[in-house]
Amino acid sequence: MSLASASPLAREGRELPLADCAVSLALDRPLARIAALVAATAASYAAELAAAAAAVLLYLPALRFGFVFDDGSLIDASGWPQRLGGLVPYRPLRYASYLVDGWLGGTPWIYHAHNIALHALACALVASIARRLGAARIAAAAAGLLVAVHPIAVESVAYVAGRRDLLCVALGLAAVLVWIRGRAPAALVLVVLATAAKESGLLFASPLVAASVAGIGPRMDDASQKRALAALFAAAIAVAALLVAGYGAVGPWGPAGDVASVAFVGRVAMHYASGLLGLRSFAPEYPALLQYSPAAGELALHLLFAAAIAGAVVLSLRRCRRASGSDRSPAFAAAWTAMAMLAVAIWGGLHEPGADRHAYLLLAPIAIAAALLLTRTRLVHAPRYLAPIAIAALLLASAAASYGQMQIWGSEGALWTRAAADPAASSRVHANLARSLALEGNLRGATGHLHVAIERDPANPRLYLGLAALRCAAGHPSWARRDLERARVAGAAGGEVAAVEQDCNFPLAVSPVAAPDSGHSPDPGSGS
Questions:
Q1: pLDDT average, residue stretch 461-483
Q2: N or C of the chain: less Cβ packing under 10 Å?
């Protein structure tokens, strides 16, 4: 058979000259090679791609979300990021990422798409680290999928201000992966970059230490190599610390020395553990942690839990030091998990106690440790694939919970309505819900929530100013004058009072009208 007759066109009954047939084959071969290369790459990185794809698909609804809560202080009405901080912008890498979004158009969906892409990257890195440490492919995929669909990640992903956590964790995980591959300088640069996104990036130095103790990562064959690596490590941490100080992150960095503060670390750790296990619901804030006053028995339990985590850190590091062979990876993952839990329990209790976003960096080591456990116990190869089926059911349930939780972050009204459903919700929650209701034209509802906010924070002059503005809008100037005087007594600046007076179009003249018997009663004629 001639070369020409072997061509695809010849089989269709059309003869080609020999030269044309050679060109056709030359074109076919590169395409076939590219297709084969793509297929081979997809097969090699199936776990990473599955985790990233699940993250993207789950959070696609967030593309229609707007800006909520702190987003307004970070991004102006035109969609351009606002520069906070001094000489160095506050959390400069997050600010730089927002600049990219602003250049691309600054619409909310662009900011949300960037968040989703970073979350997908973090999930893929989790799967890659798990595989690198020896997890089976299906177990590594499950680790990445767990991070992708766990509801405790929703706040970081669906909330534009959560970019700090996404950037920090993605870069920190990249640092761990690069360190495991033996590239110490690149790993330390990534830790510094993670710190530029959020100060908790410094915590990613701890898994690098644990990996070195376990004998995973850069080779250190003699004392001079160890000294050089230690000096490089110390320099990177010093640069990161100076960067944190430069962009204005101020503590506190640890609990006070009293017993209650140490016990609170245990209480916060229990809070995050219950959330990771799906034993509690998720909310924008947790008032019970803001008002920590335990009984004697609770105090002892929380102290015991804090001591158990600290002990786990020490024991896991000792195990890393003694581990050899295939025991090194599980020992390292256990130490990383214990150190991350202790860090989150400390820092997560100092800044907005219990906020879900603090736990985002805790998901990765837990998922990786679980993947290694599944591989080591061979549960992923259980008869009739019972373990994979159970894992799939767990992941689907988590995805459903995340989808429901995601809707809370869709708008200001949804966010603060959910937060105000807690009977112990803070003054901030009710004030923000009042603002949202006022913007919707529901002055009666806004007034009621401002009364609740004032009950819980009677010394806040801004609450009285807001109430005065609502009274004015509702056509009750005498009540507005009384609230302006209350704001002045509470310490409101003269300019703030004057601004409300100007909006109301009357000079301040305190009315002798008595205060209502109950702040919860809506004013007559305040609208609906």
A1: 90
A2: N
